[in-house]
Every structure is written in C-alpha cells, then in structure tokens.
Amino acid sequence: MEGNVEESSFILYHAPGSCSRVTLACLNELRADCDVRLVDLGAQEQQSTWFRCLNPAEKVPVLEHGGRVISETPAILYYLAGHYPALLPLEGNRHQQARVISVMSWLASGVHPVLTRIRVPQKFGENVEDIREKAFGAMAKNFALIDRHLTGRSWYFEGGISAVDFYINWIWYRSAGGGFDVEPYAAFREHAQRMAVRPGVISMESADREYAIKLGIAV
Ligand SMILES: N[C@@H](CCC(=O)N[C@@H](CS)C(=O)NCC(=O)O)C(=O)O
Fold first, then answer.
1. What does the pLDDT read at residue 219?
2. Is 41 touching ligand 1 by the criterion CB < 6 Å?
3. Three-state DSSP class for 8?
4. Strands of the 10-14 sheet, one edge to the other
5. Is 19 in the pocket of ligand 1 (CB under 6 A)?
C-alpha cells in the first residue's frame, strides 16, 4: 500500500561500486532526502528473501518511495524526474521524450551488460580472458559512440547536465577500473573531468567509500 508519497523520503537500496551509484549520485546532486540501505552483493544479499520481495530479479538499484517500489535504473531515473524535472529533458514532444528513454535503455541493455562481462567474466563462462577480450571490443564500440556524441558538447543533452551524464560517468569509471583503455576517447575523458567536480559525484564517492568500508569491500 502506498503511504503519503509526497511527504515520504526516498529509500535507495544500494551496493557500493555498483550501478546504483548512478541513482545515488543523482539524488545527491539534487540534495534529495534519501535513506540509503546497503545490499551486500558479495554475500549474495540480493538473493535473500527480504530483497527478493523488493526485486525478484535480484538486482540493485531499487528505489522505494511512500511504499512504491521501483527497480531498473532507467525507470528509477524517469520516476525521479517526475519529482525533479531538471533530472531529464522530458518536457519536449513525444519524439524528444522517446529519445531520452532510448538513450537510457541503450545504456541499461546495450552497454551495462558489456561492462558486467569486463568486471565479472567468470559469470559467463570458463574462458575468462576470451570473454573479457570480446567485451573490450564491444565496449570500444560503445565508447566510440558516446565519444562522438559528446564531441563539441559539455553534456549529453543540449539543455544541460542530466541523469544521463551521471549514467555514462558511472560506465566510464567502472570501465576504466576494469582495465578498459579509456585514453583514446578525448571528449568522453573531458566529460569525466567535468563530472568529477560535480557535488553529486563528490558526495556520492565519499559516501560510497564509507559504505564499502562498512561491508569490508573495495570499490
Ligand atoms: N538492468 C538493471 C541492471 C542492474 C544490475 O545489473 N545490477 C547489478 C549491480 S551493477 C546487480 O545487482 N547484480 C547482482 C547480481 O547480478 O546478482 C538496471 O539497469 O538497473
């Protein structure tokens, strides 16, 4: 049952280092009232009964708001934009709105799974080196597309910084940390430099270091 949605604060189920950093950084940038609940992926807490009740797909992030539960990063960002319109440029016509959904869907379904193969290739087979090599090749194509799009612009969409900038920034950070060579992508690198000084990113990174310490893991 839904509580008083408008007066409720957000609850984010988050795992340090994971894609829930995108939502966390956005919430921090917006200075939204948010309670973070940690999910220990290393201890398979995403498979626990309590977490499965929130998300049977066993994935973070999950956002709870006034009793409403939302999973999947694009859906969460879309929901948050209903409360914070500056988060996504959704005020245009149906085609412009579809473009925003299209980019987020591509990041979630076309780019993130490649990143998972770079970071945890052992999930996908025994020939770990081969899986990583192929994923590096696929990620190079994704980076080239993002880099080309960012060339000559500061942010992904013309109107200014949006949730998509936080989303691609997480992909940059996780790819670089996973050994992918980010150097050839100058426009994307400059974007990462701009993102590194955003208040939402700075506070998210500092909080996430603390969360990781709490769970005894490295991010
Ligand atoms: N499509 C989902 C993917 C979420 C996802 O893959 N989350 C990872 C962390 S980055 C996770 O919870 N993994 C736990 C598992 O696979 O067991 C989204 O965009 O939110």
1. 85
2. yes
3. coil
4. 34-38, 10-14, 62-65, 68-71
5. yes
| CA distance linking residue 12 with residue 64, whole number of Å | 6
Span 74-96, pLDDT tens digits: 999 999 999 999 999 999 999 99
Break the chain into its structural domains and give their ranges: 5-87+200-215, 94-198
Domain 94-198 carries which CATH code? 1.20.1050.10
Query: For the whole model, what pTM was predicted?
Result: 0.96
12 lines ligand 1 (CB under 6 A): no
The single residue listed with the structure tokens 């670089």 is 176
Are the C-beta atoms of 63 and 80 separated by less than 8 Å? yes
Binding site membership of 162 for ligand 1 (Cβ less than 6 Å): no
Atom of ligand 1 nearest to the CA of 15: 9
CB of 22 within 6 A of ligand 1: the answer is no
The Cα 74–Cα 77 span in angstroms is: 5
Euclidean distance between CA atoms 58 and 163, whole angstroms: 23
Does the CA dihedral 103-104-110-114 come out positive or negative?
Answer: positive
CATH 3.40.30.10 correct for 5-87+200-215: yes
C-alpha pair distances (Å), 193 with each of 41, 169, 174: 29, 10, 15
Residue 55 Cβ < 6 Å to ligand 1: no
Instruction: Tell me if 116 sits within 8 A of 123, measured CB to CB.
Output: yes
Residue nearest to atom 4 of ligand 1 (CA): 59
Per-residue pLDDT reduced to its tens digit, 55-71:
999 999 999 999 999 99
